[in-house]
Amino acid sequence: MSKQELEVIGQDADGACCQGLASAPLAEERAVELAKVFKALGDPVRLRLLSMIASRDGGEVCVCELTPAFELSQPTISHHLKLLRQAGLIDCERRGTWVYYWVLPGVLDRLGAFLTTPEPAGATA
What share of the chain in percent tops pLDDT 70? Predict the structure, then answer.
């Protein structure tokens, strides 16, 4: 496992899930934290990488399988993966020559819950 300590996004210090965007005004500190995550997701290459990792059967993928999907150098792909790790979206583990990546558990659900707005009472689809 990686030795880097990652903060779990979408949780308060006591481990409780954060409120959604529409439930209360966002505190400045929380806005800064979430902006880092959304900045990481704001790049098409990183968004595709996250999608490729998240949709993988078995939950993890080798970097050797990610790199050929892009017309970018291996160091550039590694840089994008590093930014996703720093944003707390993915983690990795080196196994011999290769590095394997996976999405951190619950992180996408918490982002989705943060962006979900509650339906008004009596609303119909």
Answer: 76
pLDDT at 114 over 60: yes
Phi, psi (degrees; rounded to nearest 5) at 60: -145, 160
Q: Which amino acid is at 18?
A: C
Cα–Cα distance, 28 to 47 (Å, whole number):
25
Question: What is the reported pTM?
Answer: 0.75
